[in-house]
Specification:
Largest sheet: none
Structural class: mainly alpha
Distance between the termini: 46 Å
Strand content: under 5%
Number of strands: 0
Number of helices: 3
Radius of gyration: 17 Å
Number of domains: 1
Order of helices and strands: HHH
């Protein structure tokens, strides 16, 4: 039952990721890769970079906590890879949402 939940989350995130890729390429064509589009991408990239930096800090904190636990905790590799894939795809979604928000503000 737990695998069904994880699989459904992966599918939803994958569909969102593919939608974001298509939408971003469409926006790039609409703006003709002009200076405004490059500025939007730059600012959205900074937000996405902050997301990935926060993710790295969270992983480092969790690793330190796991080192100090008295009993080792075993997590299946497929679950870790699935969560990692979700985290990477969510980064693209965050970039798209940042572009949309910044586009409305500029």
């Amino acid at each position: 039952m737990e695998q069904v939940g994880l699989m459904s989350i992966i599918l939803v995130v994958l569909v969102s990721y593919l939608y974001v890729l298509g939408r971003m390429s469409k926006l790039k064509r609409i703006y003709h890769n002009d200076e405004r589009w490059q500025q939007l991408k730059l600012r959205a990239g900074q937000i996405t970079k902050a997301y990935y930096e926060g993710l790295i800090i969270l992983i480092a904190i969790l690793l330190v906590i796991l080192l100090w636990m008295p009993t080792p905790m075993l997590v299946p590799l497929d679950r870790i890879l699935g969560i990692g894939a979700i985290a990477i795809m969510v980064g693209q979604l965050i970039e798209y949402l940042a572009v949309r928000r910044l586009d409305g503000m500029m």
